[in-house]
Amino acid sequence: MATAELAGKHLVLGMTGGIACYKIAELTRLLTKAGATVQVVMTEAATQFITPVTMQALSGRPVYTSQWDARVPNNMAHIDLSREADAIVIAPASTDFLAKLAHGMADDLLSTLCVARDCPLLVVPAMNRQMWQNPATQRNVTQLRADGIEVLGPDSGPQACGETGDGRMLEAVATFEAIASFFSPKILSGRRVLLTAGPTFEPLDPVRGITNRSSGKMGFALARAAQQAGAEVHLVAGPVALETPWGVFREDVQTAQQMHDAVMRSVADADIFIGVAAVADWRVDHASEQKIKKTAERALPTFTFVENPDILASVAKLPHPPFTVGFAAESGDLELHGEEKRVRKNVPLLIGNLGPLTFGMDDNEVILFEAAGATKLPRADKQTLARALIVEIARRLPDTSLIR
Ligand code: CTP
Description:
Layout: E1 10-15, H1 21-33, E2 37-42, H2 52-59, H3 77-83, E3 87-93, H4 95-102, H5 109-115, E4 121-125, H6 129-133, H7 135-146, E5 150-151, E6 155-158, E7 164-168, H8 172-183, E8 192-197, E9 202-203, E10 209-210, H9 217-228, E11 232-237, E12 249-252, H10 256-266, E13 272-275, E14 282-284, E15 305-307, H11 311-316, E16 323-329, H12 334-345, E17 349-353, E18 363-364, E19 366-370, E20 373-376, E21 380-381, H13 382-396
Helix pairs in contact: 1-2, 1-8, 3-5, 4-7, 8-9, 9-13
GO molecular function, one term: metal ion binding
Protein name: Coenzyme A biosynthesis bifunctional protein CoaBC
EC number: 4.1.1.36, 6.3.2.5
């Protein structure tokens, strides 16, 4: 999970009334774990859903709920609390609070703080679907966006009231990622990134198949880092049990052929293609439509394999390929095989994993292979490494003057 952007940041976390207040306990924990300081300010209504004592314990700072709080030496809580802030985040942001913000109202500590701020304001709406769809709410949200306020979410799905639709607050992890994304340098702004991630699954029959140990973590970390760097991200994922990074478009596939077809359908729009998936090189020719049964004679089944398309090489072969990046997991002599594989796949950049045992692990060490030579990056957790790789890729884009 992204953390570097939030280390040392000071956030005012404003809570308004709504059942989604329970998510803010977890959000506060994630933010403080990432090194941010969190000053919680609650409206009267928010204190009906979760207590200031809970929020104080989680944030490690006194919680403010009233404009008339005598703890602030000059009695100017509405000015002082946000002066050092890098941003104010309102989560959950109720229908009423969005309306207040849109009209510049200042009738309690939190709304006054927002009007008196000199830092960015992010709101994370949480409400019933009809409240969200109400034309007045939609007008207010349009106004907030026009005023330069970041609106994060809302999500869609089952709601506390029993209905289903748009309006529920983003989950704590997604809110955390969206806040981290807000603070990330936008070195891939305006770029479209297509990635593959995870293993593929090649069926033998309806219940069995061949797959591999790729967890998808590196590919998902790269998708997240690219999104946070401002790119529009399309992630084609094999079967993995990972949450979709916030703001990323995900397409799920099973087989190498399906992954190939999904990539080929979208690659014309991509500026960058990153093949992180561990794609099966072979599939069974004519997988059985029925479950293969043991016979009375106990004869062993035999399978004939055919080669799968090489997705990376197919992309690199296009007349106008995007900037194409490959990955390589080798079981030995990476330095030798890495550059050989880069040349064979005809890609400008190939990222070699040092040791195949990084499958499923949270950290990794890689070597970048390119025509100019090989460069080793320091061992790091996969998300830190993903951010470093995105910087390396952005630097190598043919026409980028964005970072120097
Ligand atoms: N790759 C791909 N399609 C395939 C096989 C591999 O797109 N059918 C991509 C992977 O996503 C990775 C790169 O090619 O970016 C290298 O994958 P790897 O499995 O290391 O290479 P192979 O070509 O399969 O070579 P080998 O197994 O012989 O080492």
